[in-house]
């Protein structure tokens, strides 16, 4: 992937100014396809007679093709002493000198490639071309010479390479990348990236035959090339569709980020028009979805999805709402992401899921809290009913801590407020503040804050206040309590009101009065209603007595 | 804006803590624990060592890297890790239990460069459900206790008991012998444990009906809890049934308090961070108006995941948040009126911006930072993040 990224940087970013491409290309070539090997060089250097080594000339020529001219010079120097004739000595010295004086347009930053004879860059391309043509002329002159020594059979070819002979370069290059390097170095050193692409037709390593065409005349040639090579070639040919396709064969991450960069550089408009699709969006979504499928990469996946403008957020919504939430930490992170991207619907859905989980575990406080976040007053009301049922069944205000911990959130729904104020009523009663407790009880009934099914419980709660020594309810309040009593007893839903919240003591009384062992639910409800009626009769009597006392007092 | 030094660890880090061995393995080495989360069954607890940076330059070597001394698989996410005495450490697990581990023998893991990894030996598994509580649950089950064989014991009767994730731990201060360990969980339960004794909690109370996120000892007999309700509750350990004091931020009463820290020398000073990125300093002696200083450490409302008081700079708080940054807050500079009664007050302008907030981040770490710790002797800040990185800053 590094090879592709490096070439992408060279072709699409570094060469925006249209400058010479050769230095960048040689850096890419030597970094990603290093040759010749240092070990081989050491082996040649340490041999008794390096010039007799089998790899001597191939090594020198590879060094020349790759721009390692200092190494080539160093290896050529022992050859001078081995030459017997003056002409041969002169030829080898000339080769060394030519390598030493190769004109370069720009200083190469890497020390191994820096030209020592030219400390300053050329002031203009024209100056450079004049020098380079003169240097090339010398190389061409030497390349047509013949030498007597059998050791110099390859020297002619070295001169031919320096003279920019494409056939010789191709015959010695190990692959098309190296051949292109040689062609750029010695054929056209001022070529920009588009010119360099035109030299690909001269690289024989790219084709199955040597007819010089870039089109695949040999059907097996493309199959032999790796995907990385295909991508690099596609970059040169500005065939972005193929480049992206081959990148996706290498790695989806590579294809996604490549397309993202190309999109930002403005190179994808043509593809968009041809394909009628947003390729960046498609690949970002594909990669994001792949990450979302991993159990722990969902945070990164969500970020990818969020960067796809058309469908990313909706997909992110779908994935995040389906993540298993195993802890508050994970839930908090998911909710944070949804809130950050404004996905309120999904946010509420996740809150509902969390609330449901807590409800299943009977953690009512957390369930209420998440249902409030989800904007679900009806479900909050349902939990309040459960808490009231719990109170009715046990006789204990187990929900006190929930109300305390919810803080100001109790104002979210009427039912929660009722729960809170009913807790206050019991607190006042405990502290023997009967008058205030009575007024609160009347307020709970008359404001319709209390559910009607709970009214008979509130009226039962009023009995000790009605029958106490202290006159708690005045005439008006007693009338209100009487009105409430009549409202539930005269309603057509009377049975429902009286049996929805059936206190434990009602049930005990109902079971005691019910002698038949095989009772149905209907008969149980009827028994409960009878018991509740008896209780209401007690309330009615207490209200009448209190009305009499209040009237007298008034 | 300063940069962290980043070390990738290939797992999301949820908890970090410096560990100072009683007998140092070697002078030039620092040690710390890290725990991971969200890795399914592949969560790990790891003991690391790293070279202490050059004292004069305080510069990290380019090849700086912490090395694993010992590692063990951890059942559930590691929600918190707390070094204890006697080469032990405790972890809060998302499976609802507290685990105690023993660090390997010092001679076997000398920091001199050996590459052999040891295993952290699990010596105790503490359930946060007491047997009384367990019996309350309708499903028949046995608590799954394990005393040191390295893997959770199999229950005699398989039954589904939900043990709410344990979220935080705190060790009782000023008690060199048998200090108590406080733990809180998502069930709102505050438990007190004694290491090496009963596998059940000594005390277990429902401190909150909403999940609790953090706990800290204020003194040897008072504790403070913080959680989703946004309430800070102070408990007396001798009577945990009811909180002694309940504190609420009036401006953000509905926001969860995600973390809290107690000042190292003034136990009345508390720092809290909430889910909306606000850091608040409290003085709990002034019950009528206990909050003294509020700082919003990020504009986009990312949650603060962890915070602590700088052990060497009493007016500095360090906070880690979900926006992938650590913020070093000079509370004096942020709100000079709050604390400048201090005669030793000197603005640390050289290292802080004009607003007294310095932010640490790294380009290669762009997911939330979950936990941090500060080494008082080495002046080293350590953090762990969801980007699967350990982060270092040596001041």
UniProtKB/TrEMBL annotation, chain A:
Gene Ontology biological-process annotations: mRNA export from nucleus; positive regulation of DNA-templated transcription; protein import into nucleus
InterPro entries in the cross-refs: Nucleoporin_Nup85
UniProt keyword terms in alphabetical order: Membrane, mRNA transport, Nuclear pore complex, Nucleus, Protein transport, Signal, Translocation, Transport
Subcellular location: Nucleus, Nuclear pore complex
GO molecular function per UniProt: structural constituent of nuclear pore
Domain of life assignment: Eukaryota
Signal peptide: 1-18
Parts of the chain that traverse the membrane: none
GO CC annotation, single: nuclear membrane
Keyword Protein transport found: yes
Keyword Acetylation carried by entry: no
Role: Functions as a component of the nuclear pore complex (NPC).
UniProt family annotation: Belongs to the nucleoporin Nup85 family.
Subunit architecture: Component of the nuclear pore complex (NPC).
Protein name from the UniProt record: Nuclear pore complex protein Nup85
Organism name: Dimargaris verticillata
TrEMBL record, chain B:
Classification via InterPro entries: WD40/YVTN_repeat-like_dom_sf, WD40_repeat_dom_sf, WD40_rpt
Keywords per UniProt: Nucleus, Repeat, WD repeat
Compartments it resides in: Nucleus
GO cellular component: nuclear pore outer ring
Protein name: WD40-repeat-containing domain protein
Origin species: Dimargaris verticillata
